[in-house]
Design a protein that fits this description.
This protein is mainly alpha-helical and 634 residues long. Helix content is 59%, strand content 8%. The strands form three sheets. A three-stranded mixed sheet has the order 1-3-2, with helices on one face. The protein has a three-stranded mixed sheet with strand order 4-6-5. A three-stranded mixed sheet has the order 7-8-9. It starts with a strand and ends in a 5-residue tail after the last helix.
């Protein structure tokens, strides 16, 4: 029997490591830029009391703020990514701390800005825009400040909150250090007799084993390790709940949820609708659990059975080189330029590939303006890792193009839309693999992976979202929130979501970011237009036009003209088509079915706007569901 240990950082070949030197060639350059950022933050504080002086002064402030943002992004990303590659290195722990301190200093120096800008009256701002075309570039940024007016405090209060930033980050920082550097999982003996330590990187790989006793051993090994620290981990999370509740109350939000959603100007109803929709479709998840239980041939389905293969004799290992080729081929519908940039990124130091001792768990894409994006993986030679590569490179390409085409003021994007690019890539990869597999068992294996994607990305993330909301609500109401309360809540949600065929194990509670469900659910229709771009043409389409009172007829007409130009191109459609153009305000006002280019041209010529009532898209979605049920589409 041999012992397999996790590689140390210096034992991994440089070709599989990211090149953080592309950001700073040396640590000394990072330290010099920290000093430069500190001095610039001090200069920016000198604008206090003068932002309303003139358009030139306000413009100068925003330009210098952009410059500071440029430095801070680089400083924070470099410090964290150096630390993430080996979280036990104290030098880079200190760098992360210094970056946080510097960010807090900058926030404090700029705390006066939003309250001061809110004091500039509309007429004066409009005169500034008239005087300076350059300042118009910052109009959206100023509009966002105005939108948050009721949640913006005085300059002194904003400065106090800014100085609290490092303390507020403590729960997450403590958990990150505990989870990546301190906690150690036990050794297990695999089917070949090798003694292997369980890690974050190989945990799911073990749960994908056909050996049920091994899966159970690994599952218990991980959760028992966390249970030993359950009081400590619970207190980290409870402290985070208290943080969020404090900031929401101080900033005059109705809830922590409202505070977080306000960044993207997202109504809480969107969140509620997601949970309600997922609840309505839980029977589908329960049927899948029952099917998995039947195909595995077990009396009770347990948590450690959720990743087990239900199809035999298929390829389940993929080297990193194979993964790169698969992903590049699958993403060809995105165009030559996209694929060329993607390939270059995968070969030129964007990605940190393999797990090493004390490396941060999981995967992410992160970058700073002016430098290519970076991707952290813990690649494990399995199908999940292939899809993770496609997913994270979707984020990386999103960042790359955003930075290429946007100024630093607007290059950042909200988490609400961030997952579109990544899940789009995953879906393209799945479609490519399904279209090109010739073995029936492999097809079943891939479809199982696709279904498991819905289970984890939609249902599981909605479950996390519900857990977060209920826990925060309890804290806000002043109800006791303890380890036992959180465990009971998590247990109840597991029972509700997993259904009667799942034996819910007494595992620890989880907490995680919870917005994936929104993006996965909303993103799938995007795939069709891309998937068939080169090899197929679209036959069927629904176009829903908002014709409520808030939409001007001229705007609708311009939209239709652009749509007509797309639909009438020979590349987009067959000569025969099945297109429903639906006009709707608070109700469906008209449905015109188009079956040819000639009918489309005639519709454009005779177009008449129907509507001018309120706005509600639910009736049109119900109407389309009815059309599908009536087999109006193939």
């Amino acid at each position: 029997m041999s012992e397999k240990r996790l590689q140390k950082r210096d034992e991994i070949s440089d070709e599989y490591k990211w090149k953080l030197e592309d950001m700073y060639e040396t640590d000394e350059l990072w330290e010099a830029e920290c000093e430069k950022a500190s001095q610039l933050a001090e200069k920016l504080s000198g604008f206090k009391g003068h932002l309303a002086d003139s358009a030139a002064t306000l413009l100068d402030f925003f330009k210098k703020q952009d410059e500071l943002s440029y430095y801070l992004e680089r400083i924070v990303v470099y410090a964290n990514e150096r630390s993430h590659q080996d979280t036990a290195v104290s030098k880079y722990q200190a760098y992360v701390s210094k970056a946080e301190t510097l960010t807090g200093q900058a926030s404090g120096a700029l705390a006066f800005a939003s309250p001061e800008i809110l004091q500039i009256d509309d007429k004066r701002l409009e005169s500034f825009y008239s005087e300076s075309n350059e300042l118009v570039h910052y109009k959206r940024a100023i509009d966002e400040i105005m939108r948050q007016k009721e949640h913006t405090l005085s300059a002194a209060e904003e400065n106090i909150l800014a100085q609290c930033g490092e303390m507020a980050a403590a729960p997450e920082n403590i958990f990150s250090m505990f989870n990546n550097a301190d906690i150690k999982f036990p050794y297990i003996t695999d089917v070949e007799g090798n003694k292997i330590r369980i890690t974050h990187g190989n945990f799911i790989d073990f749960l994908s084993s056909k050996d049920r006793s091994l899966r159970k051993q690994v599952f218990r090994g991980v959760y028992d390790s966390y249970k030993k620290w359950s009081n400590t981990v619970s207190m980290m999370y409870i402290s985070k709940l208290k943080n969020d509740t404090f900031y929401a109350r101080v900033r005059k939000y109705d809830s922590a949820r409202a505070m977080y959603l306000s960044d993207g100007d997202i109504p809480e109803s969107v969140y509620d609708n997601l949970i309600e929709t997922v609840h309505a479709h839980l029977p589908a998840l329960h049927r899948y659990m029952a099917l998995r239980k039947k195909l595995l041939g077990v009396e009770h389905l347990h948590m450690y059975d959720l990743f087990a293969p239900i199809v035999d004799n298929v390829q389940t290992t993929y080297t990193y080189d194979e993964a790169k080729k698969l992903v590049a081929k699958a993403l060809e519908p995105m165009g030559d330029e996209y694929v060329s940039t993607l390939k270059a990124g995968m070969e030129s130091g964007w990605i940190d590939v393999y797990e090493n001792e004390n490396k941060r768990s999981g995967a992410y894409s992160w970058g700073a303006y002016g430098t290519h994006p970076y991707v952290l993986l813990n690649y494990a030679d399995n199908l999940d890792s292939v899809f993770t590569l496609a997913h994270e490179m979707g984020h990386a390409m999103h960042t790359y193009y955003s930075n290429e085409h946007q100024s630093i003021t607007y290059a950042g994007y909200l988490i609400f839309v961030a997952e579109v690019a990544s899940t789009c890539n995953e879906s393209l990869l799945m479609h490519y693999m399904l279209e090109n597999c010739e073995d029936e068992n492999e097809r079943k294996y891939l479809m199982t992976h696709f279904l498991d994607g819905f289970r984890t990305i939609l249902f599981r993330q909605a479950q996390f979202a519900e857990f977060e909301h209920i826990a925060h609500r309890k804290m806000q109401k002043g109800e006791p929130v303890t380890k036992d309360v959180l465990n009971e809540l998590w247990h109840e949600l597991n029972v509700q979501y997993c259904g009667p065929d799942m034996r819910v194990d007494d595992d620890a509670f989880d907490f995680i970011f919870y917005t994936y469900g929104l993006q996965m659910y909303g993103n799938l229709p995007l795939i069709e237009a891309l998937e068939y771009k080169e090899v197929k043409k679209v036959e069927e389409l629904v176009i829903a036009i908002d014709t409520s009172e808030s939409c001007e007829g001229e705007t609708v007409k311009r939209f239709l003209e652009e749509t007509y130009a797309i639909l009438s191109s020979s590349e987009s459609f067959f000569h025969k088509m099945n297109v429903h153009i639906i006009q709707c305000d608070a109700a469906v006002q008209m449905d015109k079915r188009i079956t040819s280019k000639e009918e489309l041209a005639q519709f454009m010529e005779d177009f008449e706007l129907r509507g001018s009532g309120g706005t509600d898209f639910r009736p049109v979605f119900q109407y389309v569901d009815q059309l599908i049920a009536e087999r109006a589409f193939q």
